[in-house]
Design brief:
heterodimer, A: alpha+beta, 8-stranded antiparallel beta sheet, 4-stranded antiparallel beta sheet, 12 strands, B: Rna Polymerase Sigma Factor, Chain: A, Arc Repressor Mutant, subunit A, disordered N terminus
């Protein structure tokens, strides 16, 4: 507007007034009033309706899912003290090809990955190929294993890949407490007695709470099906163009670097992760009590 | 409007925003406090465009309280800022006695001009008087025209942002802006001619 050559006098006056008004507005701070009002509302609710407050607390403790009004389905999976949000739909900046979105970090040797606390490997007979391990230096609590397509693994979206298993070191407490969904493309499933969520038919983004209290977002790497589960102190995501029974099979076969006894998998794995701390040493302490 | 001014009303919700939102939904007021800090400036502008600078603070506070309770319905796939600004605009629109609030904005005009030794008291008085006169003239405009002018000129929103905030088509923004400017000019000219000593 200022750039127009034929700006009228009244426009100039308005603009000048606007500059002054905006600089005056910039001195105002509504934060204390907003937070005070919310605290007061919270206190009034507690005082006026203990039963309702109890229900709210229970909802927070056991997980909350909120329905998205639009075509986008949003699921929030709230863990103890933290939240994992699974956001459905193509998401901002999504591309039709998954190749550009993989971005799993840098390849590392599987031997090195085994030494990391987030290492989990599916061990099923029909998984023939060896994985490639990936580590993102910027997000060291994430570890990925990718498997090429072939055999029982159909290729996903022209990526050449058939399976990606990712582990995220979360806040290390319990399992998914509750899962709610608002569309038919997600299902609540139980894996070794723990809640998990199966997503199919679209892209998604996962948010998880790190041990330092920060939330981290992780976009879907493959446009396929995904199974997200709580595994000891870890959150695990398995992505492949596979039906749910196969994904569950993969999930239940997950084990750490040294499964000491055959058949000891889900219950005993990951107990080596010590309250979110990481060290090469701790990564080798497999076989302890459940986390 | 200057090209350098940050506008991007359609800016996507950042990962940080979403993290704060998720924490706020879980009841973390400190996280919401931070979110308010990030967006209070554009929110105040939008509120000021609708209710006038005098009522902007109240409207913005109300809007942030409402937004907190609606946060769980926010779709993280969509940009946060327009979602929030829509709540601010709706809250401001629902505030009653808008015109009176605009008249109260004269006090804002006074706050805008703190004592400036260099400018001299006379120049300041003239400037303040002109601003008050302009605010008063704006307050007399039909509401729909006043809101468009306030969005476009006072709060430096683009046509598109104005259309989003006011919930009207861009073409309507243009036509109301043109009509409002003409009416405002006429109003000020008439006042100047009638004013004693001018």
């Amino acid at each position: 507007m200022h750039q127009d050559a034929d700006v009228s006098d009244i426009e100039l006056r308005l603009c000048r007034l606007g500059v002054n008004l905006r600089s005056e507005l910039a001195t105002r701070d509504v934060r204390p009033a907003v937070v005070d009002a919310l605290r007061a509302q919270r206190a009034a609710r507690r005082a006026g309706s203990p039963r309702r407050a109890g229900r709210v607390a229970a909802a927070i403790a056991f997980g909350v899912v909120v329905m998205a009004p639009a075509a986008w389905a949003v699921e929030r999976l709230v863990f103890d003290g933290g939240a994992v949000t699974v956001q459905r739909g193509p998401g901002p900046g999504a591309t039709t090809s998954a190749v550009g979105r993989l971005d799993l970090g840098e390849p590392v040797t599987v031997a090195r990955a085994r030494a990391l606390p987030g290492f989990l490997q599916p061990r099923v007979s029909w998984l023939e190929a060896s994985p490639t391990a990936w580590l993102d230096p910027a997000v060291p609590e994430q570890l990925s294993l990718s498997y090429p397509a072939g055999g029982a693994l159909p290729e996903v979206d022209g990526t050449g890949l058939g399976l990606v298993v990712q582990t995220f070191v979360g806040d290390g407490r319990e399992v998914i407490r509750k899962y709610l969904a608002n569309d038919t493309s997600s299902e609540r499933v139980q894996i070794a007695g723990a809640d998990a969520v199966f997503l199919h038919g679209g892209d998604h983004t996962l948010f998880y709470l790190r041990s330092d209290g920060q939330y981290v977002s992780v976009p879907g790497r493959l446009v396929g099906n995904a199974l997200i589960l709580r595994h000891g102190p870890l959150t695990v995501r398995i992505e492949a163009q596979l039906p749910l029974p196969r994904l569950i099979e993969l999930a239940t076969s997950l084990s750490g670097p040294r499964p000491a006894r055959p058949g000891v998998h889900l219950a005993a794995t990951l107990s080596f992760v010590d309250s979110g701390t990481r060290s090469n040493d701790s990564g080798r302490r497999a076989g302890g009590g459940p986390g | 409007m200057t090209g350098s001014a940050p506008r991007a009303l359609e800016r996507e919700a950042t990962v940080d925003d979403i993290a704060l939102i998720a924490r706020a939904v879980a009841g973390d007021l400190a996280a919401y406090d931070e979110l308010v800090g990030r967006y209070q400036r554009p929110a105040l502008r939008v509120a000021a465009a609708i209710v006038g600078p005098g009522g902007a603070e109240d409207a913005t506070q109300d809007a942030f309280v409402r937004a907190f309770h609606a946060l769980a319905r926010f779709d993280p796939a969509k940009p946060f800022r327009p979602w929030l600004m829509t709540i601010v605009a709706n809250t401001a629109r629902n505030q009653r006695r808008t015109a009176r609030r605009w008249e109260r904005s004269r006090t804002t005009a006074a706050r805008m001009h703190p004592v400036d030794e260099a400018a001299g008291p006379e120049a300041l008085a003239v400037q303040r008087s002109e601003d008050e006169e302009l605010l008063a003239a704006l307050a007399r405009l039909p509401r729909v025209q006043r809101r468009v002018l306030a969005c476009r000129y006072l709060m430096d929103l683009t046509e598109e942002e104005t259309a989003t905030v006011l919930g009207i088509p861009r073409g309507t923004v243009k036509s109301r802006s043109a009509r409002g400017l003409a009416r405002l000019e006429k109003s000020l000219t008439r006042e100047t001619h009638h004013a004693p000593g001018r």
